[in-house]
User: Fold this.
Amino acid sequence: MDFSTALQIFFSGLNLGSIYTALGLGFFVVYSVTRVLNLAQGEFVMLGGMLTVSFYTMGIPLPASIALAVVITGLVGAGFYRFIIYPARNASGATKVFLTLGFSFIIEGVALRVWGWEFRILPAFLDTPSIQLWGATIFGQTPWVIGITLLMVIGLFLYFGRTIQGKALRACANEPLGARLMGISIERMALFSFILAAGLGAVVGALITPLTMTSYSMGLPLAAKGLLAAFVGGITRAEGVILGGFIYGMIEAITAGVIPGGYHNAIAPLILVVIFLSRRRGLLVTAGKG
Amino acid sequence: MLANTRVIKEIPKRVATAKRQNLVLALFAIVLLTIPLGASPYPLTVMVDIGLYSIITMGLIMLMGLAGQISLGHAAFVGCGAYISGILTTKYDFDPWPALFLAALITGGIAAFIGRFMFKLHGLILAGVTLALNLVFYHLVSSLIDLTGGAMGMMSIPPLSLGPFTSQNLFFNYYLIWIIAILLLIFSLNLSDSRPGRALRALNVHAGGSEDAAQVVGVDVTKYKVWVFVLSAVYASLAGSAYAHYTRIIEPGTFMVQLSAMVALMAIIGGRSSPWGAFLGAGLIVGLRQLLRESIPVLVGGLSGSYELIAYGIILVVALLFMPQGLISIVRRAAPRKRAVLDES
Assistant:
């Protein structure tokens, strides 16, 4: 393998890794606060992508389109928590998973109604041209994906680590009773985590639409990929999700580079499952802490 | 231990209900097997769909209701059955019947292999991993173009035949699928009252059991979980093979995560505590689907696909919030004597 191929694979891995990290973070935000495994996370991504395309084709500038998509998806996330998850807040984890699956069906149906079955696409942000670097070609959207994911990660760390509200969210996750005794409303924090996850998902949707296109039925497969990334690194810690996301991205890029045909789509998640089965608490979660 | 004393107390009740169960079963079989005598082709094709979904759902119900494990990847096993049947008959000149059974055997073997590793996982994590494995299956089948035809799928799969009849004949196919469904129902009902069935219930947290307690009284927890997982995969494979030989065309998209979600939906709506729930769930959802397909084009115009998805979602959410035991609980409440409880909470 020559240098330019390796470089190409590396950038492809960074790009995919950023996407999987961003997908996984949506699961992390909801799971760490509410212990709900939200299979509808992929639908937020789909909604974000679809809404951005719709507003953009109406002639609204791209940043405003994305902002609108994020706000609307956030509202959908709020409604989801308030009307579907909140009434079942005392139900078992399995019941909640299936509730998120039911919501996923509803959103998919609404999307099919509104946008039809066609795939939608956006141009690379600001029409960024592809970049040539030592023989490797980097698609114009890639720097945006990596940069914005980085911003989201930094934002989450600052928010959870530095703000009172972020600390309250973490408190809910670690010690719900204690948090309640300290006057933190767990319900409000849970609502907030759903809005945050929906908003994050919408940003991811807008980010990946120039690369992979968006269609009404992509939510559940995306959710499966994001979940894998989160599981492998450890869904209860943000660092774990980031590590899992980049491992997934790199493995997929390498298998795609080495084995032609669509096999990487099957082999990469399979390798991830094997890694996860051999290290079930997640790579970053040490014994006794998970 | 609590789980086991409960199981022992249930035994006399179970003997009494077994007779009633046999009566219901006989009635069910007679009604189903006489339906085609007066029916036109359209209701029969719908009934075939219900039969196929019921078989898959029954397997999932055993896994979820008896062993308390969640799978969101069962479409992969349906796909295994369909593709192995298709490959054996079209590429290796197998007859359809041996292909169907060999497919079930291979799929069971795959499930046994995966199960050994996977049942170290619990509950929600298992749901996520099975979902991911469904994705793996889809992409694998889409990529193995020489063997599976890739995204284009496989065509001209030969039909199952018996004497002069083939599964291209709707009546024959109806009987074929419903006889398989009824035989599997009898097997499932007997299983839940057998030693493995009791062992499984003893380890099912949702049925008031406990894995630790089951382990203490000598139940090999992982073995039984893998065992029921294999069984549910075999059910799915049989339905997949029957589907492949019936439609004669298969493509990877059919066996994507959406099918797994549909089957889970049917299991929950029907009720996870009894194999009967599979028929209630599949009947309701397929019935609703047909109703929407008939009425939407007339009432609002256009295709009904989006309305179907919305309806499924709403039904699933409403069922989970207000009827978590599924339709089977309503049927039981209506019956004068309750069957012994093995419901989930």
